Amino acid sequence: MTTSTLDLTLAGAGTVDVTLDDRGEGRPFLLLHGGGGPQTVAGFAELLATKEPARVITPTHPGFGGTPRPDGLADMAGLAALYRELLDRLGLDGVTVIGNSIGGWIAAELALLGSPRISGTVLVDAVGIEVEGHPVTDIFPLSLDELARLSYHDPAAFRIDPSAMTEAQQAGMAANRVALQVYGGTRMTDPSLRGRLAAIAAPTLVIWGDADRIADPGYGRAYAAAIPGARFELLTETGHLPQLETPEQLLRAVWDFAEAPADR
Predict the structure, then answer these.
(1) What is the pTM of this model?
(2) Which among 28, 22, 30 is positioned nearest to 54, based on CA atoms?
(3) What's phi and psi for 204, nearest 5 deg?
(4) Could you tell me whether strands 27-32 and 14-23 are parallel, antiparallel, or unpaired per DSSP bridges?
(5) Cβ(70)–Cβ(62) under 8 Å?
C-alpha cells in the first residue's frame, strides 16, 4: 500500500489536498468512506486488494482524519466533483465506485456527473435521499453505545469504550463529526437527490444490511427504485457497515457486480 497526497483544483474551492491510499493491482475501484472516517473502509480495501485482482483507491474526504478542508468545499456534490477530478488525474478507466453511508451519497452524486471513467456504482447502505416513513436516524445526539446498537446486527462485537481511547483518537472522532455535519447537515439528506437519481445511466447495485437501523432496508429499496435499472441486494445478519460486519458477503456481491458484462 502507498499513501500519497494530491493537490487537485476545484471550482469554488481552489486547491484541495486529497490524501489517499492505493492498494493492489488489477480492476480499479474507488472506495468512499462514511462518517466514521477512512478507518471504516481500510480493512475492506485490504481484503478486496488481496483476495481479488483489484486496485483499490481509498481517499480521505477533506476534513476527516485531521486533513484540511477549504471553506469552499462544503457539500456532497463538491466531493463528487473532487473525485471526478481525482479519477482524471489518476488516468483510471473502467472504475467501479463503492460508497458506504455518506460515501454512498457521494457515489450517487458522482454517478450523476456521468464520468466516462466509471463503469458502475455500488451504494452500500447509502444515505442522502428522503423517504416518507423511513427517516435517516439523527446520529449526532447518540452515545457510542446507542450508535453501535443501531449500526450493527451484533453491536456487542463492535462496542467502543470511550475511556480506552487516546486523546488523539478522541480528537479525530470529534473532527470527523464536525466534517460530517458540514457536508451532510444534521438530516443527512438532500430533498432534491431522490428525484435526480433518475438521470443515472451507469449500472448500479444497491446493497443493504438487513439489520440496518440507521437507514432501514425499506429506505434502501426506495434508493434502488429511484435509479433506472438498479439492482437491490440484501445482506443477512448485517447492519449499516457491511464492510466491517460481514466483509466476505460484501466482497462477493461487489466483485460479482464488477465482473458482470457491461450490458448488464
Answers:
(1) 0.97
(2) 28
(3) -135, 135
(4) unpaired
(5) yes
Letter for the amino acid at 43?
G
pLDDT (tens digit per residue) in 98-157 = 999 999 999 999 999 999 999 999 999 999 999 999 999 999 999 999 999 999 999 999
CA dist 27 and 212 (Å) reads 29
* CATH 3.40.50.1820 holds for 2-259: yes
DSSP string, 199-244: G--S-EEEEEETT-SSS-HHHHHHHHHTSTT-EEEEETT--S-HHH
Joined together, the cell numbers standing for residue 63 give 476534513
| C-alpha to C-alpha distance for 130 and 196, rounded to whole angstroms | 12
Residue reference for cell 469504550: 161
* Pairing mode, strands 95-100 and 27-32: parallel
What is the rounded distance in angstroms from the CA atom of residue 203 to the CA atom of residue 143? 37
Per the structure block, which three cell numbers stand in for 169? 483518537
Is residue 33 a contact partner of residue 60, using CB atoms and an 8 Å limit?
yes
Q: Is residue 13 classed as helix, strand or coil in its secondary structure?
A: coil
